[in-house]
Amino acid sequence: MKLPRRNSLHLVAGAAALPAVSRVARAQAYPSRPVRIIVPFAAAGAFDIMARLIGQWLSERLGQPFVIENRPGAGTNIGTETVVKAPPDGYTLLLAGTPNAINATLYEKLNFNFIRDIASVAGISRAPLVMAVHPSVPAKTVPEFIAYAKANPGKISMASAGIGAPSHVSGELFKMMAGVNVVHVPYRGAGPALVDLLAGQVQVGFPSMPSSIEYVRAGKLRALAVTSATRSDALPDIPTVGEFLPGYEASASYGIGAPKGTPVEIIDMLNKEINAALGDPKMKARLADLGGTPLLGSAADFGKLIAEETEKWAKVIKFAGIKPE
Fold it and tell me: Is the bond preceding 31 in cis, omega lying within 30 degrees of 0?
């Protein structure tokens, strides 16, 4: 049967609209089952804290569990590759951030390209790190620590969450700018590094503020400085490293990524919900208490930040000659 031309055009237009309609329907039905948020670090660190905060919010708002799954190893590469290889359906997400930007230069051969293979979804928070020492260290200020380190070259140990972690490269930037020789001791995650710093097995570290602030407040660690360009409202009496080493700045960024090809409707939904979380007074207060600043913005905004950090830390890694284990 031959259809009138007008009917034929209607059918063609309807067929062309079907993919768009199915995508919208799929996004409206999302999530219909539990969603995994892969955290590429061990539990108890800042990444884990951020994932659980945002996961609980999304679970309550979207009516499905957002399950936190810790996949530490290879400086976030194991967990990141898990997400790269996952189906791009919105059911496997990544707690992403500064370490991914660092690894782009640190590792010469990766099975993925982070900027190409992970779609940015939303930022969560940006927080300074804390230059912290064990109370047994005699230095009470950054200048005193620099003098102490220069008087004891190679005798002071610096803990980090692992080679190439923000706590490592921030320490290397400090060493470079201060001209001191301290021994880097990498751990398998922020939690184990903090344990030994608290025990005095190592003398100094640059832990994230979310993971260390309670120990600073309790007097179990002595904060000499924060690494951001300006002082933190969470520790207003603590100076910045830049007050003594002009130009020094280091912060840790946290956000959500998804496999490349994840439907834009799902990314937009998640971005909207995460931004709603960051605008919630209770969430804002919790992030502020951890020393963090909400990273409100579009998916593209978070992607731009990661690209800028990739460029910045590439210079430090090359200068310090940092190599992966």
Answer: yes
